[in-house]
Amino acid sequence: MEDESSYVTKCQAGDTVAFGVLYDYYIDKIYRFVYYKTFVKEVAEDITSDVFHKALVKINSFDSSKGVFSAWLYRIARNAVIDYYRSQKFDVPLEDVFEVGAEDRTPESIDALSGLAKVTEYLETLNAKQREIITLRVWEEMSYQEIAAIVGGTEDSVKMAFSRGIRDLREKCGDVSPLTVFLACGSVAESLRFIDFT
Amino acid sequence: MPDTFEHMIEDIYTLEPTLREQDAEVRALVSSLVSAKPVVAVDDTFVQSLRRELLTKVVPAPKAIPSPWMMYLAPLGAMAVLILMLIPGYLSHNTVELPTAAPEIMNTELQMDADDGAADMNMKQRSADVAPEGASMMMAPGEESDEAFVGDMLIVSDQVEGRVVEVATVTLTAPGFVVVQADTEGVPGAVLGVSPMLFAETVDLVEIPLTSALKRGQTYFVSLYHDDGDGVFVIETDFPVFDVYSGAQLMFMFGVYDAMPQ
Hints:
The complex is a heterodimer of chains A (198) and B (262). With 198 residues, chain A is an all-alpha fold.
C-alpha cells in the first residue's frame, strides 16, 4: 500500500480516519486469509472483527523498525484463528487441526458443499506449514518475502517449503491426469477446510 | 498472473530440479491449485458495520510525536544543563585548596573507606564475571531503565551446510537459550543444538554447535526459551518465548545452502 507507513504513524497519533484507510485496504485481504482457514462465513467474520479490534488497540505497539505493517496485521490474524480454535477446546494437536469437527460437519455447517474432492485427500497429506505456504502463495499471490514475514522464516526457507510441498503433492497425485486434478480442485472451495498451525 | 505463475514454476524447479522432467504434470497441478482458489465475497454489510464500530471506538492515548523544533532544541537544552552542572565543580577545583595531609583519624577512616571501596569493587567484578559487560539489568519492581524496553527478539539468516548455526542477533528479557530444531513435517522436531545460557541482554553472532550437520535443501527452526532457574536447558520445563506483538511462539524457520545465497 502506498504511503502505508504515514497512515500507520497517523493512526498511532490518534487519527482514526487514517485507521479507516488501512481498514479499507486490508479488510478483504484479512477476511480471505481467515476464510481460507475456516470456510465458515460467520466464524470468518467474528475472527476478522477480532483482528481489527486488536490491531486498533495495539496500534501503538507496532514498531516499523521491526517489520512491515501488513506482516504484523497478518500475524495478528493468524494468531486469532489459533485462539479461536483453542477457545473451542478442540481435542486435537494444534499443529494440525485439518480434521477438526469433521465428524460433526454437516452440509449445513459449511457454506457450500458438494462432496469431498480428490485434491482434499492430497492436501490433507501435506504438513500444516506446507498447506499454509501453498495457500498464501497460490491463492493470495503473496511474495515469498511477505509469506516469510507472516509465518516466521527466511524467504528462502519459505521457497523450499513451497517447492517441497508441490513435490510431495505431485508424488501423491501419482498418475492422476491433469484433467482429473483440475476437476477435483474445482470443488476444493466447497468442501475443503484446513486450519494450519505451527 | 501469468508472470506470477511462471515465477512459481521456476522457483519450484530451482529447488526441486527433478520436477522439471515432469513439467506438464507440475504445470497442470499448480494451474489446478490456482483455479481452485475459492471465490470469496465479503459481506458489505459486515464490512461497513465493522468499520463504523472501529472508527467510533475509543483508541488508546496517542504516541507523542515530537515536533521538529523539539528535535533540535532538546540536545541544546541538554548541553546547557550539563554545562551548568559542571561549572560549580570546575570553579571549586580551581579556587579551593585541598588539605595535603589528613589527621590520623581521618586517614584511618579513609583507609576503611578504601577497603570498603575495594570490597565493593570485588563484588562488582564478581557480578561482571556472572553478567558479562553490556548485560542489561533485570528490573526490580518499580525500577525504570534509561533504555527503551525491547522484547525478546531473534534475527537469523539462511545458513550454509555445517555443524554450526550462527544467529545474527538475540535479545532476551530473561536468561535463556537459543534452540535449533529439525523441521519435522513443518513443525519443530528433534533438538539439534542449544546455545550456552545467555543472560538478559542483546548478543550478536551467537554460534550454536549441532549434534548433526545441517543439510542442503532442508529447513530448520530456531527459537528462544527462558530458563526455569536451573541453568540447564530442558525443553519440557524451560519456558518458550512468545512474540509480544502476535502472541505466537517466537520461532524462525531458515533454509540451508551449500554456499551463501546471493
